[in-house]
Amino acid sequence: MSDILSQEQIDALLNSEGLDSSDSSSLFGGGSGSDQQTDKYPVLNDVYENFFTQASTVITTVLNKSTTFTGQEAQVASFEAIQEKITSVAISMSLSFKSGFEGEFYLLMKKNDVAILSDLMMMGDGTAEYSEDHKDAIGELFNQVMGAFTTSLGSERGIQISAGSVVVNEFDMDNPPMDAGSLDMIITSLKLDGVEDSWIALLIPNALTEQIVEAIGNDSNSMSSPSSGVGLNMSELDDLSRVTSFDSSSGHFTETNLTGQPLNAPQENISMLLDIELDVSIELGRSIMSIKRVLELAPGSVVELDRLAGEPVDLMVNNKIVAKGEVVVIDENFGIRIVSLVSPQERIKSLR
Prior knowledge:
single chain; alpha+beta; Chemotaxis protein chec; Surface presentation of antigens (SPOA); 8-stranded antiparallel sheet; 4-stranded antiparallel sheet; about 35% helix; globular
């Protein structure tokens, strides 16, 4: 059958669970323009949680130091509130989009924090005083963050997004070049292993916020394409979670809940979900390397992974582990033989 669900089929899925249009409205989408305006901060929190997650991963990998961001909720921008956390003269990074969205948002950081990150990135000990050379280093670091962020967000939401180049400038908090009333902000703590905790702030222009809310709102209420991930809403995933066994006599799946009790629901709903394609990948292992070590790689170099020889590899569905297996060779192709599976409940959670 076709991988594309018609609107009638989507409505049938929703109606089978007793949902009406008000129940199926998600946090991000649907409703009037005023509803979207009311919900814009939860949308920003969700989107920029992704940004902080990718930033944490990239910085931890590049600097080989554990990095975490603990964010506050998005709100109307206030330079007075930011100045309580960040000194009057800071560094501003303009983080732009090449495609998907038009515009840019801004990351504000203390000069001293820029010096620490940049010095560590250049194989220093993090004690160097700030210099103009650090602008290039911090810009390259956040180019990597933006690349990871746009890739992750685009894959997660099923939309095409790419990042532009990061531009680094000084930012005078006493004389900001923009009106706070036209901005939203998120202030977050920066925790870097072995370094005193600090703060950064994101400034998001209202025009960019509106684009994000519109794009994420439209996407969250629809089935994304097979190549962009699962894209199932909560009702559809609940339908899928009921499929636990195949009845060979009837040629159909027996629909039960996760406790094994049979349920009565349209078979068509189950069949529609079973034809959706998922991206499956195998992870052999991981390694954290400095930029210097990466640049030193050459043919014949050996990269040591964090997994013992003979240890099972991970089978990933939608970037979540669902099984473990051992590597086998089938004709001339690699494959894996499943040796263990996570529980049905955990497998369904991995698709959300």
